[in-house]
Here is the input.
Amino acid sequence: MRDFAAAAGRLRSLSLGAKLLYTAFTVASVIGLLVSWRLYGAMVQDAGSAGYYAGAAVVAPAPAPTQTAAPAEGPALDLGPELELPATPEAPRVLVEQISERKLLEVTHFHLFSVPVYVLILAHLWLLARLPSWLHTAGVVAAVVASGLHMAAPWLVRGAPGAAALMPVSGVAMLLSLGAMAVVSTVDMWLPRRSRRGDAAPPADAA
Here is the structure.
């Protein structure tokens, strides 16, 4: 822990092995964030956050019109008064079942034991980067708040479907904050180490 009591910039002083290890972790972190975002889109699909977590009737896309062959020419038949048909048929509605509490508990249980560790490691690397102290604090606060809201969002949307926007908004905030931590830490880690004042000066002669 003494690294965090010293001045920022300790990432550049790490050994080559440590840099390779932490770089692999940050690269995997960014890939994991992108895969999570893609998984979210595949999971909710057309239902959206409100439909997936709270259950809702979703309008299914209208089927593509099919081409019919032109009627053969023949004598016209009088079928009586024409029936009034709707101009456009109403799109069918598909009922999306609300996610069960058991399934949501399992997902939340997994996230509570993985996301905090994920944020903790990235935040440690972020705090070792050569950045202003206020930016260190702002980055940690943004990452913690965004990840906390994203883990709580399914429960909030399940109880109040009107809060469905919280799911993608918190997801984007989590992607940006943690992604920035990973990228900035990796770049700073591989920058040349800045020599301290007086390091290059020859030692003074003994009296």
